[in-house]
Design brief:
- GO terms for molecular function: protein phosphatase regulator activity.
- Keywords: Cytoplasm.
- It comes from Quillaja saponaria.
- The structure is a single chain.
- This protein is about 65% helix and about 0% strand.
- It contains 21 helices and no strands.
- The chain has helices at about 1-20, 80-90, 100-120, 130-140, 150-155, 170-185, 195, 200-210, 215-235, 240-255, 260-275, 280-290, 305-320, 325-330, 340-355, 360-375, 380-390, 395-400, 405-420, 425-440, 445-485.
- The longest helix has about 40 residues, at about 445-485.
Length: about 500
């Protein structure tokens, strides 16, 4: 009985070892987690195409060789030469050492360049096997564990895109050609979408999206172009891509507030939103409310604000009834202590108001101009200046003029305080222009607001004087009590 138990244990352990090793494929297709927060797993662990020897192991002598161009061989030999070239490109070179595999690196680079040229020329049609092998080779090269982000090493909050110390991908001489190859394959008229979608599947798209966290801006630019083309060509993937981008945004907003590719993803979404049909689906409106508007919350908004503002404006231009939702969302996430972020919000607010109709403006004008009044009195001159620049926009001035009975009383006090006490001369000049504009717009309303302001100031001054008198009486009573309780000691 004891021997049976021992044998059964041996059988179980051998099966588990086989199961653990069955997911390994070309090079980085195996699950290798070097850094938990930036891991990229296998492209398709259940696919038969993954059952190959690891590409990171140097191939036998003669495998890495420079093969003839497809145009130089007979038509019947082109498929086999193409597959051999794909095999050469599956070899992953070590770029950490410039002296290692120098010959292999150059052969692979030339082979990739020839493949790009062959696909771009459209000199032959892809068979299903060729497409499968091509996507497998692309997966081997691009799907990998990204290195730890620089902010995780330095402790900084955000990464400056213009910083010379960005972590650039050392294998870019090969990666660039692989991305170019994938892009040419997707846009090629010879690519059959029905066949291609078997290999460019949801898992492939999801792993492309994971790579947007790369710190290399060159890689993110290629990924942006490729994903945009996939969205346009593979209609079956469109809902999945939108949902997957949603999930990236949710994690960024509510968990990490750190991601390198938010700007590029928003650029893709800008084009997608521009193509939305009317009337707009409820799914798209929820995306605006739950993902785009909360993207104003993170501190690093300056790195992607231009793309975000474009997406928001596209929604309002598509459906003007969304203006009230957008403006109230901006007010919800309005910064309190970050003046540079406040300047960005005011710029975006002007773009949204430019597309806002009178009915939607009336719904949100009271909280909106209370916030603008606070901006007018900001001690940071750029915030006060940017708020006053709103009156340079003719459409916004027309909306204000239509609702001046409500708006002028809300901001009149802020204008008067600027006139009397703001330290910046430019703010003084702009405030004077706005006051004159209101005076010319409605003299009676302006004078009434001025009278109410003077009465309010007089009451405030009277209350201050009463408060000072009260404190003086209390001080006198306290001093008298101390003298009465004083005991002289001989």
């Amino acid at each position: 009985m004891f021997h049976k138990i021992i044998k059964r244990g041996h059988r179980k352990s051998s099966k588990s070892e086989l199961h653990e090793n069955s997911g390994l494929g070309y090079g980085s297709l195996g699950v290798v987690v070097n850094h938990a927060s930036r891991a990229v797993g296998p492209a398709n662990p259940n696919s038969e195409s993954n059952n190959a020897s690891p590409a990171s192991i140097p191939p036998a002598s003669g495998v890495i060789e420079l093969l003839p161009s497809l145009r130089e061989v007979a038509v019947s030999d082109r498929p086999s030469i193409f597959l051999r070239k794909i095999q050469v490109c599956c070899f992953l070179c070590d770029f950490s050492d410039t002296l290692k595999y120098v010959r292999e690196k150059e052969i692979k680079r030339q082979t990739l360049y020839e493949l790009v040229d062959d696909i771009q020329s459209g000199s032959f049609k892809f068979s299903e096997v060729m497409q499968e092998e091509l996507i497998r080779m692309v997966s081997v090269n691009i799907f990998r564990c990204l290195p730890p982000a620089s902010h995780e090493n330095t402790g900084t909050e955000t990464v400056d895109p213009e910083d010379d110390d960005l972590c650039l991908e050392p294998s870019w001489p090969h990666l660039q050609l692989v991305y170019e190859l994938l892009l040419r394959y997707i846009v090629s008229s010879e690519t059959d979408t029905k066949i291609a979608k078997r290999y460019i599947d949801h898992m492939f798209v999801l792993k492309l999206l994971d790579l947007f966290d790369s710190e290399d801006p060159r890689e993110r630019e290629f990924l942006k172009s490729i994903l945009h083309r996939i969205y346009g060509k593979f209609m079956v993937h469109r809902p999945f891509i939108r949902k997957a981008i949603n999930n990236i945004f949710y994690r960024f907003i509510f968990e990490t507030e750190r991601h390198s590719g938010i700007g590029e993803l928003l650029e893709i979404l800008g084009s997608i939103i521009n193509g939305f049909a009317l009337p707009m689906k409820e799914e798209h409106k929820l995306f605006l409310v739950r993902a785009l508007v909360p993207l104003h919350k993170p501190k690093c908004i300056s790195t992607y604000h231009q793309q975000l503002a474009y997406c928001i404006t596209q929604f309002v231009e598509k459906d003007y009834r969304l203006a009230d939702i957008v403006i109230r969302g901006l007010l919800k996430y309005w910064p309190v202590t970050n003046c540079q972020k406040e300047v960005l919000f005011l710029g975006e607010l002007e773009e949204v108001l430019e597309a806002t109709q009178a009915a939607e403006f009336q719904r949100c004008m009271v909280p909106l101009f209370r916030q603008i009044g606070r901006c007018l009195n900001s001690p940071h001159f750029q915030v006060a200046e940017r708020a006053l620049y709103l009156w340079n926009n003719e459409h916004i001035v027309s909306l204000i003029a239509q609702n001046r009975n409500v708006i002028v009383p809300l901001i009149f006090e802020a204008l008067e305080k600027n006139t009397q006490g703001h330290w910046n001369h430019a703010v003084h000049g702009l405030t004077g222009n706005v006051r004159r504009m209101f005076m010319e717009m409605d003299t009676e309303l302006f004078e009434e607001c001025h009278r109410q302001y003077l009465e309010k100031e007089a009451r405030a001054k009277e209350l201050e004087e009463q408060r000072e008198m009260t404190w003086k009486r209390l001080e006198a009573v306290a001093a008298q009590a101390m003298r009465d309780d004083m005991v002289l000691v001989n």
